[in-house]
Design a protein that fits this description.
Belongs to the glycosyltransferase 64 family. It comes from Brassica carinata (Ethiopian mustard). The protein is mainly alpha-helical. It has helices at about 25-35, 40-50, 50-65, 80-90; strands spanning about 15, 70. It has 4 helices and 2 strands; from the N terminus they run E-H-H-H-E-H. The longest helix is centred in the middle third of the chain and has 13 residues, at about 50-65.
C-alpha cells in the first residue's frame, strides 16, 4: 500500500472495513497481529480502545499489498453493540414504542 493503487468508494450498503468479530482470515494475519505487531501497535490498541479491527484490516492489507476490499451488506445490524440493541427497543420509528401490527 505504498502507492495510489486503489480508490476509496462510499456506498451505503458496502463496507471497506470488517469488524474482527465477523472476520474469517488466515491464521498468519492473527499471528502478525498478536506476535509480530510490536509492542507499539498493541499499546495503541490498548490506549485507543475498540480499534483492533482497524489494525487487523491494516495488517491484512499490508500482507496482501492491496487496499481494502468492499464487502456487500444489506443494512447489517451489529447486535454486539449496545446502541444497536437500544435502537431495536425503541422500535423502527424511534419513538420508544413498538409499531402496531397492521
Amino acid at each position: 500500500m505504498f502507492g495510489k493503487d486503489w480508490i476509496y468508494t462510499v456506498h451505503p450498503d458496502k463496507y471497506s472495513i470488517v469488524l474482527t468479530k465477523f472476520m474469517m482470515m488466515k491464521q498468519d494475519y492473527l499471528f502478525q497481529y498478536s506476535c509480530n505487531g510490536g509492542v507499539e501497535m498493541q499499546e495503541i490498541v490498548d490506549q485507543m480502545r475498540k480499534c483492533e479491527d482497524i489494525l487487523m484490516n491494516f495488517i491484512a492489507a499490508d500482507k496482501l499489498r492491496a487496499g481494502p476490499i468492499m464487502v456487500g451488506a444489506e443494512r447489517v445490524r451489529d447486535w454486539g453493540d449496545a446502541h444497536a440493541r437500544n435502537e431495536e427497543e425503541k422500535g423502527e420509528n424511534g419513538s420508544g414504542t413498538q409499531e402496531e401490527e397492521r
